[in-house]
Structures are given as C-alpha cells and as structure tokens.
Design goal:
Elements: H1 45-57, E1 62-69, E2 89-96, E3 109-111, E4 121-127, E5 134-143, E6 150-156, E7 188-189, E8 199-201, E9 212-215, H2 218-224, H3 240-252, H4 274-285, H5 288-305, E10 306-308, E11 315-317, H6 332-335, H7 340-350, H8 353-374, H9 385-401, H10 405-423, H11 434-437, H12 451-468, H13 472-486, H14 516-519, H15 521-530, H16 534-548, H17 555-572, H18 577-586
Helix pairs in contact: 2-4, 4-5, 4-7, 4-17, 7-8, 7-9, 8-9, 9-10, 9-12, 12-13, 13-15, 15-16, 15-17
Amino acid sequence: MDAQRAKARPGALRLLAALLLAAPLLWTSCGRPSARVPAARRVEPRVRAVLEAHVAAARAGSVPLLLVADAATSAPAKGPPGATPPPEAVVSSGVPFAPGALRDVRLLRLRDGRGAPVPLRAKPLAVWPLDGSIRSALVAFRAALAPGERAIYTLEHGAPPRPAKGAPPGEPPAGAPRRRAKASSPGQRADAPGIEGAVLDESLLPDPDGPIAAVLPPSWYAASQVCGPQLPAIDDRRFPGFESGIEGALARMTPAYDAYGVSCAGAHRTYYDGPHALYQRFLRNGDAARYRRARAEAVWYRQHELRFSPDRRLAVHVCEKEDWTPAAPLSWQVLRRMLGQGMLDDYLLTGDPAAKEAVLAMGEALRLNLPALTGGKEDVLRATERNMAWAMMTLSSYYALDPRPELLAALRGLADRTVAWQRQGASGAFEHDIHRADPSECERGPRGGSPFMTALLVDALMDYRALTGDPRVRDVVARAAGWLAERAITSDRRALRYLWGCETDAYDDSGTADLNLLIVPVFGAAYALTGDPRWIDVGDALADVGVKEMWVKQPKHWNQAMRAFGRYLGYRAALAGPVAEGRLSAGR
C-alpha cells in the first residue's frame, strides 16, 4: 500500500522567522494585504527589522532582493572602520515573473541598500509560451559581504527612467552619468534603455552555489506562478498545523532525509519528486537556508539518479535497463522517477545549464518513447493515472524550456488521450483495471480508479493548461473533483478511498487520510477553474483531517505532502472578502 496508516505526532510549533521574506507585498490573489499574522507566529524582534526593511523597499515596479553570505565563507570577517573590506563575489539568481510582467530583461535595474545603481547582467531563461513574456531571468552582479552578513538590494523591473525634459533622443536622464556599459563578449549587448538598465548577456553563466545567495520574498515567488499557485507559509492562518508539522518532521526525520540513497524497489529520497517538494518549501518561505537545501537535492538527483546517453541527448532513471532504447517502453517504476518538475524548478530559480540539460534529455527520451508507450499491446500511460501524470509533467517541463511545435503536438497528444480516457466512463474517474496495476492491492477490479494517482494527473493537467491554455482541462478537472467528492470518498467522509471500484475490497476506511494532503489540490484546481467555492468547503474538510493524520516520517511521505498541499493553499488563497473570512473563522 502506498501510504502508511499511522498518525503523525504533532510537531513543536516553530517560529518561521529567520530570513522569512513574507512582507505583505500587494498581491491580489494572496488575500488582503491587511491580513494579520497570528501572535504565535510573529517573528522575533531581530528579524522584524529585516521584514520592515522589505516593506519599505517594496514599491511599485520593484522587489526587494535579500543577499545572505554563507557563514563558512573564507572571506575575512567585517572589521572596524578602515579595515580591509571583504572581497567581492559573483551573485546570481533566477528571478521569476508572472505572465505578462516582463518582456525585456534590459528593463531590469538593481540598486544596493543605499540606493546606488549596481551593474547588472541578465538573460532570459524561459518564456511563458502563451504570450512570450519572460517566465524567469538570470541576473548576475558583484557584491561584498562578510561571513553571515545580510544586505537588501532592490531589483526594479518597470519602465526605464525618462530622459530629462528637452534632452535630445538617446540622452540619459537628468543627473545620470553619460556613459553606457560596454559589451565584453560577442553574445552581449550594451544597448540597454537607460543608464541603469541591465546588460543583455546571452553568454552569462550562473553561480548558484556561490558564497552569497540572493532570494526574493515568498509573496513574489507566489505571484510569479513559477511553480504553480502558492501561499507564503507565514500567511497560512488556516492550517498552522501543516506548517509546524512539515518543518518539524523534516528536522526530526530518522534516518535523516539525506541519509537515504537510490533504491529501485524500496523507499528512496526522491519518490514524489524530492527536488520539487523541497523547492516548493523554499518558495513558500523564501530564505537562503531552504534554498541551499533544495538546490543540494536537485544536484544530488542529477548526479545519482540520471543516466545520460553518450551524446547526452537522452536521459532516463538509473533503474531502467542498461540496454534500454526508445523502441522499448519505459518501465512504470522509471516513469515515476523522471523528475521533470524538480529539474525545471532548479533551472528557473538558478539558471544552472545542467538542470536544463536534464529537463531536455528526459523530455526527449520520453517523446521518442511515446509510440512504444502507447502503441503496443497495452497503453502503458493509461494503465494507471500515475503513468500518464509523470509523462505529462516531463513533457510539460520540456515544452516550458523549448516551446517547439513538435513538442506541443506531443503534449497535446497526451491531453487528447487523457480527455478521451475520462470520457470512456461515466463516473468522472480515469477508469482502468486496478487489479492489473497492482494485484496485491485488489484481487478483482476491472473498472476502478485511484484518487491519489488522479491527483497527480490533475497536477500535470494544470501544468499543461498554464502552458497551453487548453479549455478542456476545466471540464476534466471538475468531473474528477465531482467523482472524488461524491463517489470516491469514504462513508465517514474523512478520507478518499485508497482504491475505488475494487470488487474485493471497498477500501471504505479513513486509514489513509494522510493522502488527503496529496489529493485536496484537485478541489483547489476545480475552484480555480470554475469559481465555485463549494470545492474549497470539500477540500478544507478533508485537509483538516489530513493535517491531523499527517504521516511524514520518511522522504517518500514528506515529499508526497509537501509537493501538493502548498498548491492547494495557493488555489484557495484567491478566495476574497466575506467568503474567505467565513472559512477562516470555521477553521479556528
């Protein structure tokens, strides 16, 4: 059975304070900016000053950028006035943007804590395929910080400064230095509008593991939709038990999360996409320590769990047979270990070319494998919802970085098969032989479905919709949510059946309520697509039980909860006014 039927002990409430950047920046889909943080979760005084500085820096067309120097850096400690200053280091970061927010990286400008302009280089990492606007940009600059020191810079992303009144065309703004940055490489341009605009440098290389990390407020990450809908952890007043429980479990996990290795049969650390789960944790908190942890997991995955072809055009998980070629269908176990979402996160937030290489190579392996997966004696992708889900996630990640027509065609082909699959039955489930999927879990089940695997497929569909705008996704998700709420729920209405449609086991118990946290994003997605708030009522009721029964004592189960529930919170964050307040009160 995929989930262990045990209760998670409530973790000690931890102050989510150190380096939290969840200043109440104006963001309409995160609720009202006047929302108050409960007293139990207010930050300690020494950190409050940092947050207040973020508030002061957060003006229209700009976002605060927090620089944090590693405590272990070899740079000399900051001494008294007149002492030798710490040496400069290259700082780089992937800065995400919401659709339509930025179309030219040369509009980016950077200022240090004193407001002085800082020379900035930038290049686009990816665009939103629907409108061609920039999804993420790599920015790089130099800064000098002593070990453990922090600084707040301001990244401006609005229109360039206007020239002085009466100045001839091309003249810098009044008071600005009358010189322009010079190109230093063939791929670099120096025609940025305005003296402080970023220099477009297509040859720019990132330094994601340098001695200084640069992070943005979690409200910015949430608004950018870079990893789907999110709600900053510090703003989660409805489910504080999730925040304390998920953090406490990671800190107390025994054996430790990173003590697990690669396993092709048993428990392993990247099940349910560990890099993606850890990046979601970072994005919801916005601090350098969580960034470093997510980054380390992404690098570990590439180093230990991917096998590339000699020309590095294709990559599969190391659990696949050594002699595999695209002519043979990838195994079910391998499909769920090819982590497109996590590698995409790593690239969009760091610009690391190794992450992009992994996304493209896994995607190309899957694209070439589609005929074998779908055209043999069995449609492997429709054998269980999870197979289609991981395949769609991988291809969506590929298309996000390489939006070519042939990739869009392959992705739409998966969507076509998914829509047809659901329509073949009347339940709203993606019906299949659940005995075939796992005989040990159901002795007879020719027409059934898996709620938790369906949740993974809905997650993939929402990624696909964000890239393509396919209107069919709305009906597919709404029908799946209706099936879950009306037919797949247990009779005590505390959980979703582990399997639905098994003739030899009704699974009508709530012993797997920990899976609720993985499944409730389906109701959040249904609300986001239809605007019907009843889906949040259903989701909240199941989430309350899921938080109470949370089982997160191993990487597999921790990833399962973390990768999903943040998205549910992001979906429900769009609730406005009295509707949101009523649900907030009901949860207290």
